[in-house]
C-alpha cells in the first residue's frame, strides 16, 4: 500500500509479507523472510528525509539466522542513522549471540559503528565491538579507501574475558592492511599483522602464543570433537585471491583429542596451488615415564 503526500515525490509505503516460503524455496533457497514480516518506509521530499522500519520473526541468509529481527533507518542529505537487532543471531546452528544489536551513525565521510551482544545468563557470553570508519579517495585511486580504527574493548566467552586491543585496518581495491590486531586472555595471545594484495611478497601473519585449544570446545563439541592443549606458532597467508600461499608451523603441547593423549604435536602445512589443496604434515610424540620400582 502506497500513500502519497501533497508534496511532489513524497510517499509512504507499507508491506506485509504473506506465504513467503514457496517463493524463497524456488527463487532463493538459501534465503528466507518469515511470514507476518512488516516493512514501512517513508520519504519527505520537502525535508529530504527518509525513514524505514522492518520487523520480522525470522530472517535467514545462508548459514546466518536472525530471530525476532528489526531494523530502523533514518536519514537525510547530511546524516544516516542505522540500528538493527534481534533476540538472537545464530551462525551455522553452532554459535549464538543473544540480544545482538548493531548501531551505526554516518556523517559526511565518517561512520561510527557499535556491535554488542549479551545473554544475561550463566555462563556469561557478552561483548561489544566499537569502531570508527573513515572513507577517502586518495589522488590517483579509482576506488575509495576505508580506514578502520578498532577501539579497545572486552569480549566474554563462557565466563572467559578476552581483551581486544586497539588497531588500525586499511582497505582499498587492491590491499588489506592490518596493523597490530591482537586478542589476549592473561598469557594467551593471538595476533594478526601484515598486508594482503596481489603481490606474492605481501603477507598476513597470524601468531599464537600459549593459546588454550580448550577455548574452541564450545564450537567443536557439536561435531563430537573435544580438544585440549597449548598452541604456539605462526601461519602466513599471501595472494589469497589469485595464487594462494599458506605456510604454517604450529606446535601443540600436551595435545589431547577426545580424552586420548597424543603428547607434543608439530603441524607443518603448505598450500599446493597446482592441486588446490592444503598439504599437512603432523607429528605427535608422547613421552612415557615408567613408574619407580617399589622397595
Model description:
The longest helix is centred in the N-terminal third of the chain and has 7 residues, at 21-27. The chain has 2 helices and 23 strands. The chain has helices at 21-27, 217-220, and strands spanning 2-4, 11-16, 31-33, 38-44, 49-61, 64-75, 79-85, 88-91, 95-98, 101-107, 110-118, 125-136, 145-150, 153-157, 160-164, 167-171, 176-185, 188-196, 204-212, 227-238, 245-257, 260-272, 277-285. With 295 residues, the chain is mainly β.
Q: Which helices and strands, and how do they pair?
A:
Blueprint lengths: L1 E3 L6 E6 L4 H7 L3 E3 L4 E7 L4 E13 L2 E12 L3 E7 L2 E4 L3 E4 L2 E7 L2 E9 L6 E12 L8 E6 L2 E5 L2 E5 L2 E5 L4 E10 L2 E9 L7 E9 L4 H4 L6 E12 L6 E13 L2 E13 L4 E9 L10
* Main beta-sheet strand count, sense and barrel state: 6 strands, antiparallel, barrel
Number of helices: 2
Radius of gyration: 25 Å
What level of helicity do the residues show? Answer: under 10%
Q: What is the CA–CA distance across the termini?
A: 93 Å
Judged by helices, strands and strand pairing, the structural class is: mainly beta
Low-confidence stretches: none
In round numbers, the mean pLDDT is 88
Strand content: over 45%
Provide the succession of SSEs.
EEHEEEEEEEEEEEEEEEEEHEEEE
Strand order of the largest sheet: 12-13-16-17-15-14
Find the count of extended strands (DSSP E, 2+ residues).
23
This entry's quaternary arrangement is single chain
The gross shape turns out to be globular
